[in-house]
Design goal:
Layout: E1 9-13, H1 18-29, E2 33-38, H2 41-51, E3 60-64, H3 70-84, E4 89-92, H4 107-135, E5 138-143, H5 156-176, E6 181-188, H6 194-207, H7 211-219, H8 230-241, E7 252-255
Parallel strand pairs: 1-2, 1-4, 2-3, 4-5, 5-6, 6-7
The protein binds NADPH dihydro-nicotinamide-adenine-dinucleotide phosphate.
NADPH dihydro-nicotinamide-adenine-dinucleotide phosphate (NDP) binds next to helix 1 and helix 6.
């Protein structure tokens, strides 16, 4: 089947760049109509224009909203649904990774990391799930992280939020099992996007380490000795959305070259 997701509406949060943009491109190639969601209208418009040659522009649209704002999410999903129909595929990808030593992690940083990385997916799922249950079909894919499966120093708030995403994935998967809706997480290792570029700059600023060396150190976490590419994460997401993945439910799948081995 060339277009296994034809007739499906996929909404990708954080779809303007990085992993989210790669996911959007892949789902479009698989035949879905795609809504990109992020906070920056201009960046979303640019991303949609970049995707347009891949598919008819009639299959790409965008909505600006902050995933931490449930009211804005409700309005954005309503508008997206009016054009492309109910959201059948929800990819909760929007996220931020701020690092800080635990003793310097204040309540504001803690709250911000939980709001965007954990409560954001919660608000989006609450909005999209009723339509999926009514249709008897749905795919929810949460982009967690290897930091959802293991501890990493200096990112306690991010790590707690991503562990929360894995827990949410597991619990909800049991509630929707038997109703045609699967819920899974994809857990990338260090992936070549703005998040890693910011982390490299941060490490270099804090330690004085040369940026090339800092980037190499992050890449060495991966047993393959390299950063993961956004397209590799997108491939795993697209696979979970395929009709043939209907028995895969409640899983958190590392895409990290073997850094984390589950089981
Ligand atoms: P990027 O920084 O490249 O992209 C993040 C995206 O999320 C942007 O589109 C951004 O758009 C959007 N976003 C951020 N905050 C919000 C918000 N409050 N509401 C709506 N949209 C928002 O990051 P990546 O592509 O690297 O990361 C994507 C996901 O993958 C994240 O959840 C991240 O935690 C996870 N991940 C990334 C890894 C990596 O090494 N890169 C490793 C493991 C997991 P805008 O700012 O315009 O709103």
């Amino acid at each position: 089947m060339n277009a296994p997701l034809e007739g499906r509406h996929a909404l990708v949060t954080g779809g303007s760049r990085g992993i989210g943009l790669a996911v959007a491109e892949r789902l479009l190639s698989d035949g879905a109509a795609v809504t990109l969601l992020g906070r920056d209208d201009a960046a979303l418009a640019q991303a949609a224009a970049a995707l347009a040659p891949r598919a008819s522009s009639a299959r790409v649209q965008w909505q600006a909203a902050d995933v931490t704002d449930p009211g804005a999410i409700g309005r954005a999903f309503d508008a997206a649904t009016r054009t492309f129909g109910p959201v059948g595929i929800l990819v909760n990808n929007a996220g931020q990774a701020r690092s800080e030593r635990f003793d310097r992690t204040d309540a504001a940083l803690w709250d911000a990391m939980l709001a965007v990385n954990l409560s954001g997916p919660f608000h989006c799922i609450q909005t999209a799930l009723p339509g999926m249950l009514a249709a008897g079909w749905g795919r929810i894919v949460n982009i967690a992280s290897t930091a959802g499966l293991a501890g990493y120093a200096y990112v306690s708030a991010y790590c707690a939020a991503k562990h929360g995403v894995v827990g949410l994935t597991r619990a909800l998967a049991l509630e929707t099992a038997g109703k045609g809706v699967t819920v899974n997480a994809v857990c990338p290792g260090y992936t070549d996007t703005d998040i890693v570029r910011d982390a490299v700059r941060n490490i270099s600023a804090k330690t004085g380490m040369d940026e090339t060396r800092a980037r190499e150190q992050l890449a060495q976490r991966n047993p393959q000795g390299r950063l993961v590419q956004p397209e590799e994460v997108a491939h795993a997401v697209a696979w979970l959305c395929q009709p043939g993945a209907s028995a895969i439910n409640g899983q958190s799948i590392p895409v990290d070259g073997g850094e984390i081995m589950v089981g």
